[in-house]
TrEMBL record:
GO biological process: diaminopimelate biosynthetic process; lysine biosynthetic process via diaminopimelate
Enzyme class: lyase
Site entry: Part of a proton relay during catalysis: T46, Y109
Lineage: Bacteria, Bacillati, Bacillota, Bacilli, Bacillales
Protein's UniProt name: 4-hydroxy-tetrahydrodipicolinate synthase
Family matches, as NCBIfam families: dapA
Residues that bind pyruvate: T47, V204
Location of the protein in the cell: Cytoplasm
Amino acid sequence: MDFGRLITAMITPFDEQGKINWSETSNIINHLIEVQKSDSIVICGTTGESPTLHEKEKLELFAFALEQAKGRCKIIAGTGSNSTEHSIHLTKEAEKLGVDGALLVVPYYNKPSQEGMYRHFEVIARSTSLPIMLYNVPGRTVASISAATTLRLAEIPNIVATKECASLEQVTQIAAGAPESFRVYSGDDSVTLPALAVGAYGIVSVASHLIGASMQEMIQAYLNGEVAKAARLHQKLFPVFKGLFECPAPVPNPSALKYALNLMGHSVGGVRLPLVDPSESEAAFIRELVASL
């Protein structure tokens, strides 16, 4: 399974009542494919506010995304959680719908050991024929899967990739030691280009909602040996990479992103509690950021 170089972790649009806005979900999917040049889309990842989506909503979103994409890009279902049993169940249900792959986050809150993480991912992978992408994001899960454990998991045939947010050092170690077919994706927009330089295959992006086409241009420039051009594009895009997450103070993804998309004419609504919309000072910063695009 080739998920491509640019994967977007998609937001979930909501209406004024906090319900899924299906018409805007369709618009965003088309925008990501046609305008922002996403090769694949993650549905119900962290950016999609997965912790606040119940199972029925997730399955409806998986099916809807498949219908809207119509084969124009791959659809990766966010089916991971800190419950191994439920992750197996949701992954199997997503497979029945026809998704192209599953994204499995490191179990959060219960802080498993490395052996516990290995067994968690192993048993889920053995329960499905879907290609699996691991997702290591210690800033959110507290626990971090080690490079050594990731490399053990890379030997399982249908565990084909990882989204790595721990460090460039870990990206390097995994890329150096994994089977040739196993692909490492950065999960941090701001290190897309450096990650490619140390062996990453691509990026699972948030900023690609706004600047995906430029990110594709940067990636292709690097792959074509136009390193100076890629560096210039990275420098140009860097304020957006950082701004979406930092603002005047750190704003939880996807609050800032949704505010930016609303400013750009996409009626994606706000966020569900416990996330909150940007403060006035944060909103002013995001308005300046969008004006610079």
